[in-house]
User: Which sequence fits this backbone?
């Protein structure tokens, strides 16, 4: 592909990403993979270059662009090397016309940028949300130790006791240690969230929104494969991914439970008042993960945010029914909006006066309301809100 053809390919992909964001369709990485699956002639350098253009253009645009071309013109306004590639060549984009529409810049749609600022995310904190994330690993202590695991590269040791950091794009999935379950890909902030649970061998622990089980596997390692560990979720497809991951990791203690939304206690009723700990890794806007999914900021609107906060309140109430006296719940979102973090745990403590805030002593983060906040700028992690509450005996 010529440089101009790469720009045109990026424009076509951006059109697909914009349409998917508006229609809550597939994420950008899946759209890019599918695009090149249908274009086998594109070599690895072409795929890499086009992907880079797409994500640079996404990061350059604040509000949802009118089109992929408008998004690429936004990037061209910041990078003088791109405008000449609008050359009208056979596979390239048409020349730039006078007064042609250019997508707006900024952090996010105006309402969302304001909500983040009201939540203390502005300036350097806001800019860091659109940086590039490194690749973090968790050494699986069921099979290895951070100081002795054999890896092709040493990695940077981080604050979490089993965390190692590598440059973005490191082909960890090709390493024998990954295929053998000695390491798992997991952001450092996510590892700290798991630490806040304080899971111990022999306990009964419920991962209420387990998804594909990344945090469940970390809990299994913390429990040394001893006790009861429930991985529950309402998404059958995501939950089904846990079984092969658990087998690879040697985490044989995990029991998966598929839940029916709104009728979760039909399945979880046997654990009512019996869990030592419940982790609520709640569905959220993902504002803390924009370094990895920058187009996510185009998918959120006030109505969707309201739906998410209602779900978060309901999950907190559900978790409270499962915890035994003397037990604890940990509420986690990968959002930096107070509406999904400090406000939610404040509501929970008001509505459940028997419960008490029980802040975790984490090595990173800053206090936010009754919890802790991790941010890309301050902590070099994904953005997280983590709160812990205890039910006195």
Assistant:
């Amino acid at each position: 592909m010529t440089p101009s053809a790469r720009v045109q390919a990026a424009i076509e992909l951006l059109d697909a990403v914009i349409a998917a964001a508006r229609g809550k369709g597939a994420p950008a990485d899946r759209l890019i993979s599918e695009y090149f699956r249908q274009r086998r002639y594109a070599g690895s350098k072409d795929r890499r270059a086009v992907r880079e253009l797409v994500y640079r253009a996404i990061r350059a645009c604040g509000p949802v662009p009118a089109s992929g071309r408008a998004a690429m013109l936004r990037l061209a306004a910041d990078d003088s090397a791109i405008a000449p590639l609008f050359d009208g060549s056979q596979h390239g984009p048409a020349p730039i016309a006078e007064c042609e529409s250019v997508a707006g810049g900024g952090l996010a749609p105006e309402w969302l940028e304001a909500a983040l600022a009201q939540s203390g995310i502005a300036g350097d904190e806001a800019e860091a949300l659109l940086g590039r994330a490194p690749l973090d690993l968790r050494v699986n202590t069921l099979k290895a130790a951070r100081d002795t695991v054999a890896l092709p590269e040493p990695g940077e040791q981080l604050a979490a006791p089993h965390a190692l950091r590598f440059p973005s794009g490191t082909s960890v999935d090709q390493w024998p240690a990954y295929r053998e379950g000695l390491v798992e890909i997991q952001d450092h902030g996510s590892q700290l969230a798991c630490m806040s649970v304080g899971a111990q061998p022999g306990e009964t622990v419920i991962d209420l929104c387990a998804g594909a089980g990344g945090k469940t596997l970390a809990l299994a390692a913390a429990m040394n494969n001893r006790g009861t560990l429930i991985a529950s979720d309402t998404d059958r497809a995501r939950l089904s991914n846990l079984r092969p991951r658990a087998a690879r990791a040697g985490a044989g203690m995990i029991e998966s439970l598929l839940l029916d939304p709104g009728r979760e206690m039909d399945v979880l009723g046997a654990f009512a008042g019996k869990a030592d700990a419940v982790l609520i890794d709640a569905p959220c806007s993902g504002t803390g993960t924009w370094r990895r999914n920058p187009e996510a900021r185009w998918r959120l609107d006030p109505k969707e945010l309201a739906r998410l906060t209602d779900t978060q309140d309901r999950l907190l109430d559900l978790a409270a029914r499962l915890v035994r006296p003397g037990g604890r719940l940990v509420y986690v979102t990968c959002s930096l909006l107070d509406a999904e973090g400090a406000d939610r745990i404040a509501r929970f403590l008001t509505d459940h006066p028997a419960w008490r805030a029980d802040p975790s002593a984490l090595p990173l983060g800053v206090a936010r309301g009754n919890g802790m906040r991790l941010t890309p700028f301050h902590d070099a992690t994904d953005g997280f809100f983590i709160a812990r509450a205890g039910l006195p005996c």
In short: The radius of gyration is 22 Å. The chain has a mean pLDDT of 95. The longest strand covers residues 323-333. The chain is about 35% helix and 15% strand.
